[in-house]
Fold this protein.
Amino acid sequence: MGLDSHHPGPPRFMQVGQRIVDPVFVDVEHGFDRDNLAPTIAGSPERDPKSYDADAFSWSVVSRPAGSSATLEDAPTPYDDRDRYDHGLGHTAEFEPDEPGTYVFELDAPDGTHELTVRVFDGDEGDAAAADGVGASGRRDCGGPPRIELDGRYDAATESFVVESGAELASDSHAVESDLVVEYLPHDASGLAATDIAVDGTTARIPAAALDGPTRLYAAPFDGQRVGVRDEIVLDPESESVSLPNRPPDWLDDAVVYEIFTRSFAGEPGETTFEVLADRVSYLDELGVDVVWLTPIVPAWSPTVETAPGGPHGYSTADYFDVAPDLGTIAEFEAFVDRCHDHDIRVCFDLVANHCGWTHPFFQETIAQVGDDPDEPAQFPDIVAWDASSTYSDWFDRQRGASRHDAAPAQTSFFGVRLQPNLNHGNVALREHLLAAVEFWAERVDGFRCDIAWGVPHSFWAEVRERVRAMDSDFLLLDEAIPRTPTFAASEFDCHFDTTGFTETAHAVARGERPPSDLLDAIEARERDGFPDYTRLLNATENHDEARLAHEAAVGHREDPAAVARAAAAAAFTLPGVPMLYYGQERLITRHGTRREFPYADDDDRADDIERDPYKRAFVNWAEFPEDHLDFYRRLVAFYHDSPVLGPSADLVRPAYRTETPDDVLVFGRNAGDAKRIVVVNFAADPRRVDLRPVVDTTDLFTGRDVAVARSEDAVTVEVERLAVLSTPSLFDGA
């Protein structure tokens, strides 16, 4: 088992009505969750592997439940009449169960035959769609899915391992405790048989004698209506120990993430290099950040074009194994990473595995003939004919017919943008190429932010995790799954974007459209959506794809947009989650930065994605900035690091309070057991007052000032300018 075989990955848990399917079109219409059954790469992946023959990997059904007629398919077209082009490879398979029970599939690979078990629970199509995590619209029919958090120990008296599931129903579940079951399955490549696992309630016991070495065991909960996210534990009979590979690195719980839109960080067009970035590491250190995420640094088309649409974002990869020449050399990038490490700052690489760029040499090699050059530099010529004999022809997703610009079988592209042709994750050679890139960069950085994670099959991400964690047990995997999808927490990612939850809510609060208390709803929805307690979600108020929050506050005609931005940041740092800053927000870039030019400034009928907020990718204002604004962020970061009660794991509580300005004030509690806090965040331009229980200590831990302005028998009144964090012996009367 592991990196030396073509095994098809861990067992799957799903329910009737769900599908393991990899739609060729990556857009809103075709869903936000891709998957397939795929062989892993044996040994070290090659950068430019030879094509695998069509019969190199073949799939078959070994057993299925009584009454089932479900089969494995290569490339079905389940969504519409735009047929997917069939490459005829059969390297991967897709599956839709029709009966509950256990299915066993067989993969015939060059290194032998491997099995894969899929456990299918009962359910209906509506419940299963919600279980897919494709939005939460169907969730209220039966409540959220159950959750588990495996833990285990070796019992010397019985010479067996005891695995506790920690199973629990969602807070809004319609099920009862007696409905809750937990199913355990070993990795099919291990020597452990499912019959050797004795389950009592939701606890499993496994004899050590049944294990032939370190063994991966998986489990998933089911409440009679919804299946929850699976978890994983490793049992080692030799050391009589257990480990939990499906956990974030410990360092993440004290980390502040800082995203840099790379080519804007120098402050002037064309000035950013790795040497300039290295010179700014001392600034990042003074700010107190722990992880720097750089938007793509590989060669790409957009940085080579003046006023490219969206700016020089770099998400159109032309080479997965080099850095862009305008930024420097590999050696200079490694020197930047070393400088970061000297300051205890980790570096996160932006990995784009859903698509590459139109200029990538492998894609260009698939083109036999193009039409005339277009009039605009931001467009590409029509493709008149393809070279079907190219080694790389099958590396790209295609539709059966022609498209508006390209001959059949036309490329498909991320959201129809021809610049970014979709990669075919049904081709094992393409997957090997990408995994070689994964290992190349994992040797040089500390984590990956994975672009369009929802546009890449889960099977690929599970293999990525296995490889990078074998190289570095502290390696970070951060997904971009929009909308947030808890299935990415199943042995794939440590941390997740929360754009549709926290970020969009923060923006609505900034515009004055929703009360600040809705931020609590966004945090609490994570549990109801099925995210396990151990996984982490980002509290980001901005990123390179979203508008600046201060800009949103200005759009909403807030009196002091900068104050609103500081309040939103205060909420991000004090609510459960991993706080994130987007470059320049701490310097009020929306007032003092230099915005990027519109590529279509002379054409009122055309727009790009920076028009709504021209400062979202603006140049940093190094010379002019408000010192008090920057100082607030510095103090906020330092306070977060010194306040473990504000970390991701402390409970969120809604305490009793009164205020005459609920549209301006956010009040909540954090409970870390012995230590408890009341947090008050003010989004208004002027100070606001809140009545709290009289036991609350009114000395603000953030500023050091006593914020009490009045006391009575049943309350103490505090006045808060922006943020106050107060100690309290209890969060409720008597507790």
